[in-house]
Specification:
The chain has 356 residues and is of the alpha/beta class. The chain folds into 2 domains: 3-160 and 339-352, 3-Layer(aba) Sandwich (Rossmann fold); 166-335, 3-Layer(aba) Sandwich (Rossmann fold). The protein is built from 13 helices and 13 strands. It has helices at residues 16-27, 41-48, 68-90, 103-112, 128-133, 172-179, 198-211, 246-252, 262-270, 288-298, 312-324, 326-335, 341-352, and strands at 3-7, 31-37, 52-56, 94-97, 117-121, 139-142, 156-158, 187-191, 216-220, 236-239, 255-258, 274-277, 303-304. It has a 7-stranded parallel sheet with strand order 3-2-1-4-5-6-7, with helices on both faces. The chain has a 6-stranded parallel sheet with strand order 10-9-8-11-12-13, with helices on both faces. α1 packs across α13, α3 (68-90) crosses α4 and α6 (172-179) packs across α8 (246-252). It is globular. The mean pLDDT is 92. Residues 4-141 form the Glycosyltransferase family 28 N-terminal domain. One of its GO terms (cellular component) is plasma membrane. Pathway: Cell wall biogenesis; peptidoglycan biosynthesis. It is found in: Cell membrane. UDP-N-acetyl-alpha-D-glucosamine binds at residues 11-13, 164, 194, 289.
């Protein structure tokens, strides 16, 4: 029996590509297991997919002072021992990682048990967790072609990003119904990632009176960020977080305003959506979202605003310019060739699994 362990977590961006792979692996008669953290978002998302989930202890290497920095190495060590036990128990043929610090103990345990592993780097530069995993994996898949220059050439493979098939199955009638909108006015979708963005939320709400003169706005604002005073505002619909509903909302959106996590960039551009990216600043990240957004802008696929330049007037002007030139952006996106990340990674798994 072919068995695979998938791992990765911390944010939805580390889990959604794994869900795309799970869909295809299920059709190919793989027995699928998932190793993640006890409390991370991956646990609830994987449980919904009815995949066997195994929690382990994990830590995070921070670039700033925190008392947890002294405790987390012990959590990682415990996670390695837990992962070794799981490797012996599950006896996987291969491990696939989408990154995040929960993956480090799993990859090391797989190497110690002579189980081949493959990891995926979603950003242009390589995150710290994947840097730690490089010596222990067979291949490092990349979402961006130029990520290879940061990796050993004998291990880097450009695959693109696995994208869930259901993203393409949106139903416009359901989308309009979910939002309470009509099909007579353009729709702007605004989303700030799985946790939401206070800055984007505030800026959007500042310009809502002007936007609602010409557009309907659906706003995925993050857990705890719904503004109850705006619940009855005509043409404005708020959600904390959406999962199954998202493809339907995508289908009715003429313009999408989003953070620039890799999943968001690739899903939206593959759907040929006209986008305005507002990447996380370097104060809140290592700058990977800025690089992702610059990739899209430099290829004529979108526009961006840095968080430092997010004023009401700039926000409004960018939206109006995008709508005015949306056909040009759609044409540019349609010419850009994105690899089928799911198929490419499934092929690698089929090449490297143990016991074939």
């Amino acid at each position: 029996m072919k068995r695979i362990v998938l791992t990765g977590g911390g944010t939805a961006g580390h889990v959604m590509p794994n869900l795309a792979i799970i869909d295809d692996l299920s059709k190919l008669d793989w027995e699928i297991h998932y190793i993640g953290s006890y409390n991370g978002i991956e646990r609830s998302l994987i449980n919904k997919a009815n995949i066997k989930y195994h929690p382990i202890r994990t830590g995070k290497l921070r670039r700033y002072f925190d008392i947890k920095n002294f405790l987390d190495p012990f959590n990682v060590l415990i996670g390695i021992f837990q992962s070794i036990y799981l490797m012996i128990k599950i006896k996987p043929s291969i491990v696939f990682s989408k990154g995040g610090f929960v993956a480090v103990p799993v990859i090391i345990a797989a190497w110690l048990n002579r189980v081949p592993s493959i990891t995926h780097e979603g950003d242009i530069t390589v995150g710290l967790a994947n840097k730690l995993c490089v010596p222990f994996v067979k291949k490092i898949c990349t979402a961006f072609v130029n990520t290879a220059k940061y990796l050993p050439q004998n291990k880097a493979v450009y695959t693109g990003l696995p994208i869930r098939r259901e993203v393409f199955s949106g139903n416009k009638a359901l989308g309009y119904e979910l939002c309470g909108f009509t099909n007579s006015t353009p729709v702007i979708l605004v989303m700030g990632g799985s946790l939401g963005s206070l800055n984007v939320n505030k800026s959007l709400r500042n310009i809502l009176p002007e936007l609602l003169k010409d557009y309907q706005v659906v706003h995925i604002c993050g857990k705890g960020n719904v503004d109850n005073s705006l619940q009855e505002l005509k043409g404005y619909k708020q959600f904390e977080f959406v999962t199954e509903e998202l493809p339907h909302i995508f289908s009715i959106s003429d313009i999408v305003i989003s953070r620039a996590g890799t999943n968001s960039v690739f899903e939206l551009l593959t759907l040929r959506k006209v986008c305005l990216f507002i990447p996380l600043s370097t104060a809140a990240s290592r700058g990977e979202q800025i690089l992702n957004a610059e990739f899209a802008v430099n290829n004529g696929l979108s526009q961006m605003i840095t968080e430092n330049n997010l004023s009401n007037q700039v926000f409004l002007d960018k939206i109006k310019d995008l709508f005015k030139n949306k056909d040009t952006y759609i044409n540019n996106i349609s010419k850009y060739k994105f690899p089928d990340g799911t198929a490419e990674i499934i092929n690698l798994i089929s090449t490297y699994y143990k016991g074939k």
